[in-house]
Amino acid sequence: MLGRKRGGRFLLFETDPTATPPARERRDVLGVALEQDRDTADLAAVLPEGLDPAVRTDALVGMATARYTQSNSVVLVEDGSAIGIGAGQQNRVDCVRLAGAKARIWWLRRHGSVDALPRIEGMKRQDRLNWQIRFAGHEMTRGQLADFTTLFGAEAAARYDDQTWRDAWMQELRGITLVSDGFLPFRDNVEHAAEFGVSTIVEPGGSTRTAEVAAAAHEYGIAHVQTGLRLFHH
164 and 119 share a domain? Predict the structure, then answer.
């Protein structure tokens, strides 16, 4: 499979399944050595009993993703797939908004209007995908829109400016699990999450405002799960 891509120019590494990673990890930064225990926490053990199996799976996928994603990070998961990751942000609400923006594009790309764009002879698959993403997200520059109209026609351009199908389709996005690598500090994280169809929030909890965050989740009909486990990756 890989041989058919990029002329097969891939380096493949095979790990010894019997190898044991070192118990401690070390980083050298500008002459300063930082050392800490390797992250060996059992993700499944920190989730509460009685969690819906599908939600549990999504929570584990989100936690595993957050474990190896640059902090601060928030992961949105749907049916076992990470559909939006907001990583490396300076505040957590930006993580939520970034993950939500990516999930929005992921969902809008699945609308029939996007797949129905006319096929352009000779257009490469990646170029078509790029146009579909710009079309779905309503994020073209003026020049791109002119090129889009030339390529796909006036009818497609009119559909691009019509927000009603996007708004209606976004209402169908539900059952999303949000996982945060650190505690949610304010209720605005929950308010933004609700806009992207989140029905379950999984976070460490333990902040001075966790009760406020939990109350906001209850207000929006979102299940709030506290794990007590931070998953920072720097």
Answer: yes
**Nearest 10 degrees: Cα torsion 127, 128, 129, 130:** 50
pTM: 0.89
Q: What is the pLDDT along the chain (234 residues), one digit of tens a residue?
A: 777 777 778 887 888 999 988 999 998 999 999 998 988 899 999 999 999 999 999 999 999 999 999 999 999 999 999 999 999 999 999 999 999 999 999 999 999 999 999 999 999 999 999 999 999 999 999 999 999 999 999 999 999 999 999 999 999 999 999 999 999 999 999 999 999 999 999 999 999 999 999 999 999 999 999 999 999 877
Alpha-carbon distances, residue 92 vs 105, 183, 218 (angstroms) = 20, 9, 20
Cα–Cα distance, 83 to 102 (Å, whole number): 7
In CATH, what number is assigned to the domain containing residue 71?
Answer: 3.40.140.20
